[in-house]
Amino acid sequence: MSNYDTVLLDIEGTITPITFVKETLFPYVTIGVSSFLDRTWDSPETKEQIELLRVQAAKDVNDKLPEAVLIPTEQEATKEQIKEAVVKNIDWQMKADRKIGALKSFQGVMWKEGYASGELKGVVYDDVIPRLEKWKADGKKIYIYSSGSVPAQKLIVGYSDKGDLKHFFSGYFDTAVGLKIESDSYKNIAKEIKKEDSTNSILFVTDNIKEIFAASEAGYQVVISDRPGNAPLGPESTQFKIVTSFDQI
């Protein structure tokens, strides 16, 4: 790696095991969504989240997505009918692993409750902390870019099994800046952190080869994280540095 003064990190499969997301966070939502809606039905936050899902559902139905269903309003249906539509909506979107803002926002609200109660605790690889400390000591700025919402990102690092790690990070980005497989997203991030004229001084670490190509096209230095449980890397990945632990960066 040549000189870099800024680090951009993915979460799932990079600083956090993919199994934590797939086997803990996702089931927490799919199994608990019905009781969560019952528990919080009258809260303004839940109403707001349902409205976001409702707007997205209307778009999905209009786009003729096969499993999309409309979520009726309180003027059009009973609480149970609305709840049933929300549960069905969440279920099909999560099975499809959609990176949609409304879904990610709803997941984040549910996870916030789980972290606050102690039922959830973020899992961070042991080798990540010493590298974060070294980067911080060297004066490097560290950011996160994940398809999960910014609030969800803060929950994982704020309620982690290594303690509250938020002090390591200078900022967080989600798909509001663009999809992670699009080069323009990385240019947008560089612009926001005032590095648009020196993108080669940013190091991006992720497990996703499509994201690696997108960031590389934007001028970033890149490293592939090859963790247990991650998708197998193809021959196209060999042109980039591959690490199995952060102490190899």
Question: Can you describe this structure in just a few lines?
Answer:
This protein is α/β, with parallel strands linked by helices and about 250 residues long. The protein contains 8 helices and 6 strands; from the N terminus they run βαααααβαβαβαββ. The chain is about 45% helix and about 10% strand.
Net shape: globular
Total helical elements: 8
Return residue spans where pLDDT drops below 50 for at least 5 consecutive residues: none
Strand order of the largest sheet: 3-2-1-4-5-6
Order of helices and strands: EHHHHHEHEHEHEE
Determine the structural class based on helices, strands and strand pairing: alpha/beta
* Major sheet description: 6 strands, parallel
Number of strands: 6
**Rg from alpha-carbon coordinates:** 19 Å
The amount of helix comes to 40-55%
What portion of residues belong to β-strands?
5-15%
- Average pLDDT number: 96
Spatial separation of the terminal alpha carbons: 8 Å
